[in-house]
Amino acid sequence: MTAALAVILAASQAWSVDIATSPRPATLSEVVALVLEKNPAAAEAASRSREAEAALGQARLSSLPRLEADAAATRGDNPVYVFSTLLEQRRFSPNDFNVGFLNSPGYMNDYQGQVKMVAPLFTAFEASSREKMGSLALEGARAAEDSLRQSLRLQAIRGFLAVLAARALSDELRAREASSEKEILEARRLKAKGLVLGSDYYAATAILGELKAWGRRVDGELSSAELKLWLLAGAEAGEFKAAGALGSGAYDLPPMREMVAAAVRERGEARRAALAEASAGVDRRRVQMSLLPRVGGFGTFETDTWNFQSGPSNRLVGLQASMPFGDPTYGARLARARAAEEAARAARSKIEQDVRAEMEGAYASYRGLVEGMPSVRESVAASSRSLEMVRPLYRNGRQSVMEVLRAEEACARMEEAWMEVLEGLHGGYARLLLIEGRLDAKAVETIDKRLR
Fold first, then answer.
1. Between the CA of residue 107 and those of 86, 113, 213, 304, 312, what are the distances in Å?
2. What would the pLDDT profile of 191-206 be if each residue is shown by its tens digit?
3. What's the pTM?
4. Are 136 and 221 in contact (CB under 8 A)?
């Protein structure tokens, strides 16, 4: 009884250790969330968006009145300085007109405090242009952040799919390897009795060796795919295990023209190109209006004292206008701004053309893959039927063991082809959504459901 309890306790401890050290299963949505949370590029893009938002706030606040405070302590015997300081301190008297005093007044102290307000009233649309360009820059930063996050989602999806495909193929190869080894053992027994040709036996053994080598290679590819996924997610090796399997259901797609139109409108690169063109237009209009006058208001409050007990004050308010005349750089600046706007417009057209071509190519490839799925599925079923048929023929001596191993290998080859199709099915759909600018969290959930 004591020995039985000891065995049970040891088994329970071993089981608990295995559970504690085994990686937790993680769905596609969970892995994508980890990638977006821990990827440094995503953090940088978010900071750039906040930077652009702060810059826009700065541009908006720059048109508000500005208040300044100044303080100064001076001491001097310059006759002009002394004469003006006495006036500002309200201490000027008839005796100060004495010629001797005017020529050699001696040292004079002055402690001055000033508060000044400057209010821009009309800036030749400079302030509104800065605000508009800041708003466009913020939109561009957010579009860049969104594009990066979508790209990271695609990387995570492809990495996740690669793990599932490699794992499924590894399991298939192990099953084929185990089944083939049984057939080889039986053939070895029959060969010893002279019922199996030696050439067939050795050919079958060679096929088994190829299956084993293939399986080890796929195991290595699986380990590599898992390591890449962990690294992308910022996780420790073995922290989680990709959960799920590659589903075979195709995704519904809208007509190509709708997806092309959406891609031209929503793709990150196209959006940023449109914003760059709009910003260039704002800059060109700003340059055009740079010859308009600028008007601002100001007001000052000043105190002057020599002993901090008396502080007479002075006040001054006014308007100030300035207007450039004969600016020799105006023509060159305007030509430069116009050329920049034309370049931005051309760049936008080029990007839209590239996006359109990319979407049309990806759409056609995806449709071709979906249309070819029934043929691959039939080939997988045919290879399985071939194996089922050749085994009894071999048992009855009407086929060689080499044919059985060839059928096993054919099943594995078709399973590999099927995994490639399924990986392309989900990965191709994700790529279409990326080109369309719609690979968001909801899209990830849609793909995740097909993998469970």
1. 12, 20, 100, 16, 20
2. 555 545 567 778 888 8
3. 0.82
4. no
